[in-house]
Design a protein that fits this description.
homodimer; 368 residues; alpha/beta; 9-stranded mixed sheet; 6-stranded parallel sheet; 15 strands; 35% helix
């Protein structure tokens, strides 16, 4: 198992012991999304470790169902067919998946491939008339993200980004507290996102496929977190890059970047993105009336946290289960999640990533 | 009571309930300083709130004794005389304290006045042939600090800076762990130092007297902390200043500064200094083998913390009691504290503060 998977999985185990929490009542308690309505029939594109995780999580969904696969590996397709009862007619490869347009059994495709492939694949899905769910980061820069938004609009399909934290109960509770003014004027957000990445030959360390290093993969959690925690959009960024292992982290693959963001209210964020440190995955926010700290803050396992009012006690639910049911509600009921998960939301993060890379390279404060 | 005092005091109360810990055995358990030897006879210059705290803490000292005062307020002198049994001949004001050179009852003067006065007062003490203990920051810039170091050398007296954390048992234990390699290669330090300052008319918000705002007063804890936690000297700094209240925080008085430091090993530090946020006072460090988090990390009350090995359990002892006994051991026994508290140590912090102010002003990475 890769170090990355171990990191994100390490405290997921307990969720398995809580099957009763997945009742419809509990399932939507946090996100208040309706559990009534059509089922979203989904094909997963990319049957790697995260695709597998999503497929497993979808088995507990009430509103979303795994019905198809797109993969370049026939043996994987066979395995998934047998495991999830997927009919032959819903199986595609990367050459022929445009034919999905004629398949009424598939409503949406969840693109879970390397970042550098997202844009072209998502646009092909859109052109096939299917809703696009794209894993974060949506592409490798804001330009790509905007092309995806435009293509989905033109094709009249939804584009949703895999921001699973926007459905996570403790995260949702904290965002509600902030909206209700429980923290007073929010002033500071700190996000530390990172882990020590293993296998140097994985696609995440290949610029062509990943578009960048830690920032694209894990730093984006601190960027997106700063925005949903503070409830503002940054107006400037500064960044400092450190590379201790240029053999492993080649040109264009960031190892460690510290970055700061300034917000219109005067609030500031101080963040760390790294592929070379452990014991991170921490959010902290302080305001004039209170604080919140979360650690882990974005891992797959139970989020833990406390505020000035006490511990966050919302029960853990598998993030991807909530996300996929939530996305069905967005697509079929027009439900608005507490923080958007649409393409425009994705582009906002990509613009910030572009600015961080520029700031790290030039040493300049980059205005947004 | 000022907000500042409340902040630093808020969890000190428990220490009062632990008088038995102040046995000589426990007292030096952490710092391993000898408890045998001459008593350091100290005059305190500046009878404000922190001077009062030091005087109270010294009542539990084994190796240091409060014997004199220097103040511009006769009523304060009277009060201290009666409270601490200080003879008339050991009382001075700011005009006549050079005469202390003829007073064999006083070995050292602890300068606890506004920062902008430290340099001249410390040099006068040195010229009077007495050891100088100067509260941090030692002056308002590195130039002043160096002048103080030079003057004390020329006068053949010791110059020690009030770095109480260098004697604090949990802090000392963490530094030992780092030296023993328990954290592996240290990679990242995060320091968050700040509180919401009260009275806008206090000297700490007067550039002439303070030399700066939050950085001089509280940000210095993150600077010094980064150095003693990581065990390296920074080679570059970057900084971003934010001012939301220019009425209260006038020209030259920093409200909020985020700053980053890079170290020769590739380790990085990400810090926050502020007079406009609460719920801070946090240190975090991660290395290849483990981590430590401390919160509070530098307040007067019990430091709390944990590492990958578990909670830090060293008993709380009043920092200033340990500091003053420890300084007696340094002066009379030549004991080396785990991290220096001498003038050169102070100058290192002042050079970094100078560089942070420059980086914040110019936006440039400033090399050290």
């Amino acid at each position: 198992m890769s170090t990355r998977r171990k990191f994100l999985e390490k405290i997921t185990a307990t969720s398995v012991a809580l099957p009763l929490l997945y009742s419809p009542v509990n399932l939507f308690a946090a996100s208040e999304e309706p559990c009534e309505g059509p089922v979203l029939k989904v094909a997963i594109m990319g049957l790697g470790s995260y695709g597998t995780r999503v497929a497993e999580a979808m088995q507990a969904c009430k509103r979303a169902k795994l019905v198809g696969v797109i993969s370049g590996t026939p043996s994987k397709i066979k395995k998934w067919q047998s495991k999830y009862g997927i009919p032959e007619k819903n199986c595609y490869n990367y050459e022929n998946f445009d034919a999905i347009k004629d398949n009424a059994d598939i409503d949406a495709v969840y693109v879970i491939t390397p970042n550098g492939l997202h844009k072209d694949q998502s646009i092909r899905v859109a052109k096939a008339g299917k809703h696009v769910i794209c894993e974060k980061p949506m592409g490798v820069n804001a330009q790509e993200g905007q092309e995806m938004v435009d293509a989905c609009k033109a094709a009249n399909v939804k584009l949703l980004i895999g921001y699973r934290m926007h459905f996570e109960p403790k995260t949702v509770a904290v965002i509600k507290m902030r909206k209700e003014g429980k923290f007073g004027d929010v002033k500071f957000f700190q996000g530390q996102s990172g882990f020590t990445i293993g296998d140097p030959n994985q696609w995440r360390l290949d610029k062509e496929l990943s578009g960048g290093g830690a920032m694209m993969d894990i730093g984006i959690y601190s960027i997106n977190g700063a925005r949903y925690m503070l409830g503002e959009e940054p107006i400037w960024v500064t960044a400092q890059e450190t590379k201790t292992n240029p053999e492993k982290f080649k040109e264009g693959i960031d190892e460690t970047i510290q970055f700061q963001m300034g917000f219109p209210s005067g609030a500031v964020a101080n963040c760390l993105s790294t592929y070379n440190m452990n014991h991170l995955d921490r959010f902290f926010m302080t305001g004039s009336k209170g604080f919140v700290e979360m650690k882990p803050s974005t891992g797959y396992g139970p989020i833990e946290g406390k505020t000035h009012e006490g511990p966050l006690t919302q029960p853990h639910m598998t993030h991807q289960t909530l996300q996929m049911d939530g996305m069905a509600a967005i697509i079929y009921n027009g439900t608005a999640p507490i923080v958007p998960v649409d393409g425009e939301e994705g582009v906002k993060d990509m613009k910030i990533i572009d600015a961080i890379f520029k700031a790290a390279k030039t040493g300049d404060k980059v205005m947004l």
